[in-house]
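User: Fold this; tokens only.

Assistant: Input:
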Amino acid sequence: MKQPTAEREPTSPGRVLLIVAAAVFLVSLDLFIVNIAFPDVEESFPGSSVAALSWVLNGYAIVFAALLVPAGILADRLGRRRIFLVGLGVFVLASAACGVAWSVPSLVAFRVVQAVGAALLMPSSLALLLDAFPPERRAKAIGAWAGIGGAAAALGPPVGGALVSLSWRWVFLVNLPFGIAAIVAGRRALRESRNEQDRRWPDALGTAALVAGVGALCWALVEAPDRGWGSLRTVGLLVVSLVLLAGVVRRSRHVDRAHAPVLDLELFRSRTFAAATLSALLFSVAFAAMLLEGVLLLTGPWGDSVLVAGLSLAPGPLLATVVAITSGRLSARIGQGPTAVLGNVVFALGVTWWLWRQDLEPNFLTGLLPGSVLTGTGVGLLLPAVSTAVASTLAPARLAAGSALLTASRQLGSVLGVALLVAILGSGRDGLGSYQDGWAMMLVACGLGAVAALGIGSAHPVAAPAASPAGPTAVPAEA
């Protein structure tokens, strides 16, 4: 017979926020910090190509994006606290493995495992946070949670530069002390909760098809410059990707009732949701390509050290964080759609500045910096706008699924941005021409993102939901 236990004291919301913020910050930082380590990783493994190393970024992003929705469903069923701590443990162990990787394939493999851990903890982190805060304080909690990503983006280049100056391996090993501390504190402070009514399992087959489909697409894009766009291998990979991704959509539409689809297609019936998600994906193509091209330009033709490169790239993300915090007033006045369009346009102006003024000679003040100011402002305008536009379309019970799809779309956009940039840089054009082609690709992506953002309309900010992402069916469970 189960023995009665003493009633546990209510967990301090501030303590929960600190634990969740530490974990989410590590995951978010890992999305940005590895870019700055890219040249040193290449140097550590002689003979490795940019195309091969691109999988260090894309392998992580593909798996992270594909597992976000299934991980959220798993957390709802098995318990958010449990899945959060398991995910954090996997992330920490994989970070240690990345730090001792002996080859590019081993590093890519460990990055994939790291992405599994990141995907497990991210969806449950917001649910745990909202469960700890009373309804009247949840808006601020959501704002703090959302701001963690901006802080990670801002600190990624300088922190990454400082760590890489010791060794690129410290980019991963730095996760260990903070991750372990968060696990120890989380076991004591976090309260378990789950969705007792939704008993579905994630659709493993659909998830595997999504990973394989996006992976085949990136493989084709990365290898096309060397093998040729009309080669049998390139065309075959593109066909395989198309078939698999079409299969994901079909399976999500017809999956049995015992499983939750990897894509909640019902959400896309909302024009606002569909337009915001598409705009975020297209914008992320340009954003991810910009981050990588900036590192390659500064550490390549400019000859900067990784520390100097990190500091040179920091103004854009720092400004993005400031603008993101203050852009709510503009969105409240003109609406989320126009703000998202403006974000794309301002970002495009920054890229246009680089096309006009940037060259292979170091030119920070009149070349790099003005473009960084504009692109950072664009990021700060767009990301909060599309996030709030998505939230405005969702009932509390679907907030987790909708937010996960938005995050997944941004990650898939990042994958495509890196793959396209690698294809452009490997196309045979030398010198400034290859970098200009990369900036031109970013302009196209921003232009398409602005067109997609027009479909958002004049959606305005809504009050924070009064329920956790799982909705009112989320109930406490014993730890």
